[in-house]
Amino acid sequence: MKDLNFAKCELLKDSFVSRQYKKRFSDLVYKVKRRGRDLYVVILLEFKATPYRFTALQIVGYILDFYRHLIDSKKNLRMLPPVFPIMIYRGERRWAAPLNISELIEGNELLGKYALHFQYFPIVENAFSREVLLKIGNIVSTLFLAEAHYDIELLERELLALFKKSRDKKAVSLLLNWFKQLFVHDRIEESDYTRLERTYHDPKEVNMLINAIRKEKTQLRREGRKEGIAIGLNRGVKKGVRQGVRQGVRQGVKQGATAQRQKIAWSMLEHGEPLEKIKQYTGLSVSAIRKLKAA
């Protein structure tokens, strides 16, 4: 840390990360001065919603895959960029998984200097108290506050304070858009989102936005229904009888609704939501959600 000149730290638009790794690696590549020379630092963000004992092994696997990709894709590569691995945990249970891979290897210390060591940096949201997060008072602490200590009146005050003091209006807008996605996917009430939106926009704009979101949700349901009817008609026509069409339509509509629930489940899985919560919001069984996750 002492050797790095953060005053000249630069976030790069271009990335070392190929499309293959975009979903796993963030696009955060920094160029920073170290003892007068340029150093590139890649930030790896791993999000967890439930504790996983072998997280250290999982993360080091991503890094090694990334390094192999660099070696294969860049000619005359002499040195690899450092990767800073950060694990962000947003679940309710206590995080107790080992931070160092050495804790997962039985008798690792017997190998002495040949033993394997790797450690990731944990950020556990529920380890921060409400008081500490309020004292920090920035965009990240407000996000943690929403996930670990949800209180709509408190969030409304904090967002209003952010809008007034934050220089980075784009980042604040992204935070508000995150709340919009929660509303679109029925994870928070419309009334909660409306209150948060009003802290930033004119009431007329709020009503227009709320109506647009309602149309978006209705369109998602219609697409699922249309898809189901198309499947049903196709199956019914193949049977060549009216009864088959009726059965096919009913079955198709059901499949369309299931497809729509699966889309929502996919979205929640990508955001690291726990299986029980996905089951609650989609009506899918835990086994069905696990099949989606493994697909």
Explain how this protein is built.
This protein has helices at 55-73, 130-136, 139-148, 152-165, 169-184, 190-198, 203-239, 242-270, 275-282, 286-294; strands at residues 4-11, 29-34, 37-48, 83-89, 121-124. It has 295 residues and is α/β, with parallel strands linked by helices. The protein has 2 domains: 1-127, no CATH class; 203-294, no CATH class. Strands 1-2-3-4-5 form a 5-stranded mixed β-sheet, with no helix packed on it. The model is unreliable at 202-206 (pLDDT under 50).
The number of distinct β-strands equals 5
Mean pLDDT: 76
Measured distance between first and last alpha carbons: 42 Å
Supply Rg. Answer: 24 Å
Shape: globular
Count of distinct structural domains: 2
* SSE arrangement, N to C: EEEHEEHHHHHHHHH
Number of helices: 10
Strand content: 5-15%
Share of residues in helices = 40-55%
Strand line-up across the major sheet: 1-2-3-4-5
Q: Unreliable stretches, pLDDT < 50, 5 or more residues?
A: 202-206
- Give the biggest beta sheet: 5 strands, mixed
- Give the structural class: alpha/beta
Name a few traits of the molecule.
295 residues; alpha/beta; five-stranded mixed beta sheet; 10 helices
Can I get a quick summary?
With 295 residues, the chain is an alpha/beta fold.
What's the arrangement of secondary structure elements?
Blueprint lengths: L3 E8 L17 E6 L2 E12 L6 H19 L9 E7 L31 E4 L5 H7 L2 H10 L3 H14 L3 H16 L5 H9 L4 H37 L2 H29 L4 H8 L3 H9 L1
Parallel strand pairs: 3-4, 4-5
Antiparallel strand pairs: 1-2, 2-3
Helix pairs in contact: 2-3, 3-4, 5-6, 6-7, 7-8, 8-9
